[in-house]
Amino acid sequence: MLTIAPEIEVLARFGRALADPIRCRILLVLREAPAHPADLADLLGVSRTRLSNHLACLRDCGLVVAVPVGRRTRYELADVRLGHALDDLRTAVVAVAADVTCVDAAEEGCC
């Protein structure tokens, strides 16, 4: 049975998904259009096993869904609003990053 997750849980799941660069790339690709795992693996340059693990994480976080298409499975964002949220986050990060000056990247607490 599907339920609506509380707000804090939704943010935590989104953060967990975005914590890995490969999952970020998967979400950005799926923001453009649904895709099959083999195509995603080729596009991202990762093994199908590794991609499968990341897709499982994104499914568990509730961000992507698997849609059966004949004998294959296609992945897409679970909600079109996630694409808008990704766009908003990317824009916000760019705006913040432009204002940051970081003298020593190895410095603790530095971006």
Automatic annotation (TrEMBL):
<dbReference type="GO" id="GO:0003677">
    <property type="term" value="F:DNA binding"/>
</dbReference>
<dbReference type="GO" id="GO:0010288">
    <property type="term" value="P:response to lead ion"/>
</dbReference>
<protein>
    <submittedName>
        <fullName>Winged helix-turn-helix transcriptional regulator</fullName>
    </submittedName>
</protein>
<dbReference type="GO" id="GO:0003700">
    <property type="term" value="F:DNA-binding transcription factor activity"/>
</dbReference>
<feature type="domain" description="HTH arsR-type">
    <location>
        <begin position="3"/>
        <end position="100"/>
    </location>
</feature>
<dbReference type="InterPro" id="IPR052543">
    <property type="entry name" value="HTH_Metal-responsive_Reg"/>
</dbReference>
<dbReference type="GO" id="GO:0032791">
    <property type="term" value="F:lead ion binding"/>
</dbReference>
<dbReference type="InterPro" id="IPR036390">
    <property type="entry name" value="WH_DNA-bd_sf"/>
</dbReference>
<dbReference type="Pfam" id="PF01022">
    <property type="entry name" value="HTH_5"/>
</dbReference>
<dbReference type="InterPro" id="IPR001845">
    <property type="entry name" value="HTH_ArsR_DNA-bd_dom"/>
</dbReference>
<dbReference type="GO" id="GO:0097063">
    <property type="term" value="F:cadmium ion sensor activity"/>
</dbReference>
<dbReference type="InterPro" id="IPR011991">
    <property type="entry name" value="ArsR-like_HTH"/>
</dbReference>
<dbReference type="GO" id="GO:0046686">
    <property type="term" value="P:response to cadmium ion"/>
</dbReference>
<dbReference type="InterPro" id="IPR036388">
    <property type="entry name" value="WH-like_DNA-bd_sf"/>
</dbReference>
